Predict the 3D structure of the following.
Amino acid sequence: MVLSGLKAACRQGIPKLIIVTALCMGISGCGTKKETLPFYNTADFTAEWIPVTDSRYATIHTIDSFSLYNQSGHIINRDSLKGHIYAANFFFTSCPGICPVMVNNLEKVAAAFTGNDRVKLISFSVMPEVDSVKRLQEYGRQHHIDPGQWWLLTGNTAQINQLGRLSYFSEKRAGLTKENSAFLHTESLLLIDAQSRIRGIYTATDSSQMNRVIEDIHILLEE
């Protein structure tokens, strides 16, 4: 078992020499220690490993409350996702470019957790004025999306934009200064844990990163 956090440290660009040294120093004392994922508290996505004993643990950034409709017409809010691990992205059904690629990549993640009630996928429409519940139903059928596992959400545009920029940090730091009415278009995929905290960020258009998403979800399932 690798030392906790070393894989994520590689993702953050920490020099190999430091990582190897840490592995050599810790390998004798952490043979049974599980790997953990960092927390992301700011839009610059600085990885932070914060133990429960740290006073900062109680103030880790969490996703704000929201109330939206899924493709089945059911109201979905933050409480609906309590206790669930989920991957979240932002899309719109008429998008001809990156959205079909994101959906195809996310299908791989969905397939890896078929039948696991603890894992969800959440796709927020950034054009809810077009993406009605009925339209999302049709889109879901076209892409063979299981409405019990993968929720396509629509509702208030301002609420979705604010969630995307200030809660999920989906446009990273650039999104913090944009007007709430500005169109939200991002390739970010965010991994959220059972306590609504950000634990991973990926590029949803990069199919090679989906294996890492799957691996990281498995890590959260063991927490």
